[in-house]
């Protein structure tokens, strides 16, 4: 039975340093549930803004005089404000309190089945910079394929809503770390983290995950980690072996596409306990 599509509203956050020219760059978005979707609960809201150095470099090329300090502080500002009890008042005042150079687009409605997936899709379509190189496009396509496959399986096992997405790594590493851990979950006091890592592209992604896992374990001794790969590691492939040995040293479990069904079944038992 197909999932029911729900109505969400979104607004795009724009950087427009010269109002006379009516030119802007999209730098983020705010997604809101319509009131009444979850009776008895406050409508869900989330903001996603640019954070990577490459995104700010792109804006500098377009607007050399950009107030980068202002833009870099917006993500933390929104994250803190959206958790406050007075969030409704804050949202009503946003248009008045934002800088003249930072503005919201009018609200638009969209039908979707999953809040987090729609937030990612809207960010990718309206805000994320387009891949500058063919290889970057291949990596993003591969990541999206893995994400869609995994989330389809998690949804079928009815545990997708128990999985947190886009966890900031800087809470465990260093301030300013742009990495967001793709998925996180909790059971019996244990935290688990899952990151998409295509095997055949950029071993640096594997190094980043290994470093992040090491930092997290300093605070969460029993944390577990899973690398979601695009293929089964091949023993004759030196790059594959480098990555798997790196993960083994940090006790990071490798789960290729063929193992996602088993992984989801295991998580279903844990998360429903």
Question: How does the SSE layout of this entry go?
Answer:
Elements: E1 6-15, E2 25-33, E3 45-49, H1 53-62, H2 68-81, H3 87-97, E4 102-104, E5 108-112, H4 115-126, H5 134-156, E6 164-168, E7 180-187, E8 190-196, H6 204-219, E9 224-228, H7 238-249, E10 252-255, H8 260-271
Parallel strand pairs: 8-9, 9-10
Antiparallel strand pairs: 1-2, 1-4, 1-5, 2-3, 6-7, 7-8
Helix pairs in contact: 5-8
Question: Keyphrases for this structure?
Answer:
5-stranded antiparallel β-sheet, 273 residues, Trna Endonuclease, Chain: A, domain 1, 2 domains, 22% strand, alpha+beta, 10 strands, 5-stranded mixed β-sheet
Quote the CATH topology of the largest domain: Trna Endonuclease, Chain: A, domain 1
Extended strand count: 10
CATH class of the largest domain: Alpha Beta
CATH architecture of the largest domain: 3-Layer(aba) Sandwich
Tally of individual helices: 8
What is the beta-strand fraction? 15-25%
Give the termini distance in whole angstroms: 25 Å
**Mean of pLDDT:** 84
- Name the structural class: alpha+beta
Structurally, the number of domains stands at 2
Helicity, in percent?
A: 40-55%
- As a whole number of angstroms, the C-alpha radius of gyration is 20 Å
Structural notes for this entry:
It is built from eight helices and ten strands. It has 273 residues and is of the alpha+beta class. Mean pLDDT is 84; it is low at 133-138. It starts with 5 loop residues before the first strand and ends with a helix. The chain has helices at 53-62, 68-81, 87-97, 115-126, 134-156, 204-219, 238-249, 260-271, and strands at residues 6-15, 25-33, 45-49, 102-104, 108-112, 164-168, 180-187, 190-196, 224-228, 252-255. Helix 6 (204-219) links the parallel strand 8 and strand 9 (224-228). Helix 5 (134-156) crosses helix 8. The longest helix is centred in the middle third of the chain and has 23 residues, at 134-156. Strands 1, 2, 3, 4 and 5 form a five-stranded antiparallel sheet that branches. The chain has a five-stranded mixed sheet with strand order 6-7-8-9-10, sandwiched between helices. It has two domains: 1-130, no CATH class; 133-273, Trna Endonuclease, Chain: A, domain 1.
């Amino acid at each position: 039975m197909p999932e029911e599509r729900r109505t969400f509203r979104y607004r795009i956050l724009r950087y427009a340093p010269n109002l006379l020219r009516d030119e802007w760059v999209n730098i983020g978005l705010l997604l809101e549930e319509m009131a009444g979707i979850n009776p008895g609960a406050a409508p869900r809201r989330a903001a996603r803004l640019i954070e990577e150095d490459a995104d700010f470099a792109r804006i500098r090329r377009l607007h050399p005089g950009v107030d980068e300090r202002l833009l870099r502080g917006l993500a933390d500002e929104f994250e803190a404000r959206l958790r406050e009890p007075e969030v409704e008042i804050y949202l009503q005042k946003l248009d008045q309190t934002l800088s003249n150079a930072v503005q919201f687009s009018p609200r638009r409605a969209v039908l979707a089945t999953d809040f987090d997936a729609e937030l990612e899709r809207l960010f990718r379509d309206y805000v994320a910079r387009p891949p500058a190189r063919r290889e970057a496009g291949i990596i993003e396509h591969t990541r999206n394929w893995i994400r869609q496959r995994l989330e389809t399986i998690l949804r079928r096992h009815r545990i997708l809503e128990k999985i947190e997405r886009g966890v900031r790594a800087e809470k465990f590493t260093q301030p300013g770390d742009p990495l967001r851990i793709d998925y996180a979950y909790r059971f019996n006091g244990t935290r688990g983290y899952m990151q998409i890592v295509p095997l055949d592209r950029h071993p640096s992604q594997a190094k980043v995950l290994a470093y992040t896992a090491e930092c997290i374990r300093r605070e969460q001794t029993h944390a577990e980690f899973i690398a979601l790969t695009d293929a089964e590691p091949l023993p004759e492939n030196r790059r594959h072996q480098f990555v798997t040995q790196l993960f083994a040293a940090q006790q990071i479990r490798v789960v290729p596409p063929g193992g996602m069904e088993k992984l989801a079944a295991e998580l279903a038992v844990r998360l429903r306990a």
